[in-house]
Amino acid sequence: MKSSLIIAVSVLSAFTAAAPDFCSPGFKPKADSDYKLDLSKLNRPEGFLVSAETSTPPTTTKTEITVNLCGPLSRPENANQDNCKDGTYVCRRIINVKEGNERVTEVQEIAGEIDGSVLNPSFTAPENEQDLSKNGVQYAITLNGGKVLDKTQSTKIVLECDTNGDKNANPPAGPEIKSYENGVLNLYWKTPFACASTEQSPGTPPSDGGNNGGSSGGGGGGMSGVGIFFLVVGLLIAAYFIGGAFYNYKQYNARGLDLIPHRDFWLDLPYLIKDLFSHLMESINSRRRAGDGYVSV
Fold it and tell me: Is residue 219 within 8 Å of 209, Cβ to Cβ?
């Protein structure tokens, strides 16, 4: 029992380690953008099965493709020569059907890490597309490592964003077979999981392209230069009154209004402003009267 548990944990760890980078949640299709993909939802050890049939009288030839984009396919308990080997990501089987009886005629490991081969996965995002969340955006994935009769095999998958797809479908929609030529299997996969998204963390303001003008270090959440000026002035005034009150209290044991620094000035300030305003108004009125009494010679 203990040995079985150790083996199971080892196998699970191997599967996790083998997952390509593009299958990690939060994977960025473009390193210089904020868009993220989550293709981990397409990680199914049992794989996605897609098949096509061809009439070959007196039999029917069925081609079965089983794909797991993000890890090796699991093998049935009673696996034999009719099943692909351990480490296979893409398995192709040719089955001959006659009068309801099936006979597997070919088993091909098209991609994976089989008998020491290397998957060497690649992911390509569209270069000229800026909005990676819109319907129809396509990505290209290539999985290698397969070999049939000493001939190298690979799988090329076109992932297309389907904004109308159901992310809650169980299982999710699988791929379609497009072609198989010269050792290259081409699949087309329309899925909502190929639609990238931008998720901002809570409280993060939207980017304004760095045109904040007088903002300093972005620490004010986009505060303008005028806002920073008034903030500094307010802090200086507060420091003046608090510091002055503390000084008067410690130096003179002042209480009440006596705590106000330069109290007499602040008490006289309204009258000074009133006198200044009256003086300005008197000067203006005097000039008007002088203008009205001017007589040309």
Answer: no
CB atoms within 10 A of CB 290: 9
Tokens representing 168? 């809650």
pLDDT tens figures, 8-33: 443 444 444 457 999 998 999 998 88
> For 20-194, which CATH superfamily applies?
Mannose-6-phosphate receptor binding domain (2.70.130.10)
Q: Which of 228, 231, 258 is nearest to 245 (CA)?
A: 258
Q: Which residue has the tokens 């000229």?
A: 128
C-beta atoms surrounding 244 within 10 Å: 15
pLDDT tens-digit profile of 50-107? 999 999 999 999 999 999 999 999 998 888 899 999 999 999 999 999 998 999 999 9
pTM of the model: 0.61
